[in-house]
Amino acid sequence: MQGVYRSAVPPSLPRRLTDRRRRQLVRRTAALLILCAGALVILAPILWMVSASFEHMTQVLSFPPTIIPRPWDFSAYRRGFTFLPFAHYFWNSFFIGAMSSVGGVLSASLAGYAFARLRSPDGHVLFIVMLSALMLPYTVTMIPQYVLFKHLHWINTFLPLWVPAWFGGGAFFIFLFRQFFLTIPSDVFEAARIDGCSYFGLYWRILLPLSKPVLATAAIFHFQFAWSDFLGPLIYINSTSKYTASLALSLFQARYGATPWNQLLAVSLVAMVPPVLLFFVGQRYVLSGIVVTQK
Question: What span, in angstroms and rounded, lies between the C-alpha atoms of 225 and 96?
Fold first, then answer.
C-alpha cells in the first residue's frame, strides 16, 4: 500500500514546482531591477535639483555635478524668498487653484450626471460633440477667449483663470464623471425616485457621497493644472502684484543679470511642494477613481 501511495505523486512534481518558483523569482527580480533603473534615471534631475539648492553658486556650475553638497549652504532659500514676495505669489496660485478645483468639480459632475442618467433623444450626439473638444488645442481658442474676456473687462484679474472652470469643468473631467456614474447600479436611482427624490436630490444625496474617488481625482488634477499654469496668467495678468508662482519664477530669472541657479532651484522646489503633497495625500483616491472609471 505504501508503494501505491508513493507512485500516486510523480517524483518530478516538486522539482517542477521549484523550477517554476525559481523562474518567477528571476522574472520579478529582473523587472524590479529594470524599474529601479528607470526610476533612478527619472529622479536623477530632481536629486540634482535638491542638491544644487543647498550648494554655493560655484558648486552648481561645476562639472561633473555633485549629489551631496559639501558644505551644506542654506542661504539660497533665504535669499530667494526675500528677493521677491513669493509668499504672496504662492497665495495667488493657491486661490486660483482652489476656486478652479471647486468650480470644475461641481460643473463637471453635474454635466457627467446629465450625460449618464438623464435620457434625451440627442444625448449621445451631444456627448460626442463634447468629447470632440478634446481634440482642440488651447492655441485655437486662445485669441477668441482673450477677446471675450477683454469685452467683459476681466483682463488683469483672476477671473479668466478660474471662472471658466465653473461652466463645464473640461471635457476630460465630464467624461470621467460620466463613466463613474454609469458604474452605479440603476436600482439605486429607481428606489430613490420611488421614494420621491428629485433629480437634483439624486445627484446631491446619492451620487456625490458615492463619488469620493472621482471627486478627489478631478480636484487634484484641476489644482495641479491651475498651480502650474504659465500661459494663462501670462496672457491675462499684467500687474506684478497679481503674478502666480509660475510667473514669479520667470520674473525671478529676468531680474538678475546672471541667474543665481541655486536660489532659483530652491524657490522652484518649494513651489513643487503643494501639488506634490496634495497628490500623495489623495493618491489612494486618484488610483481608485481612474481604475473604476475604466470598467
Answer: 10
**How far is Cα 250 from Cα 67, in angstroms, rounded to an integer?**
26
Contact 167, 158 (CB under 8 A): no
**Domain map (residue ranges) of the chain:** 2-73, 80-293
Asked if 237 and 156 count as a contact pair (C-beta separation under 8 A), the reply is: yes
Identify the CA nearest to 194 among candidates 184, 202, 183: 202
In this structure, what is the dihedral angle of CA atoms 256, 276, 67, 79, given to the nearest 10 degrees? 30
Sign of CA dihedral 170, 171, 174, 175: negative
Instruction: Note the pLDDT tens digit of each residue in 54-81.
Output: 877 777 777 777 777 778 878 888 887 8
Supply the pTM of this predicted model.
0.79
Task: Report pLDDT digits (tens) over 202-246.
Answer: 888 888 888 888 888 889 889 989 998 999 999 999 988 899 988
At 215, list the grid cell: 471627486
Q: Which CATH number fits domain 80-293: 2.120.10.30, 3.40.50.620, 1.10.3720.10, 3.40.50.970?
A: 1.10.3720.10
Amino acid at 277: L
Please give the grid coordinates belonging to residue 203: 445627484
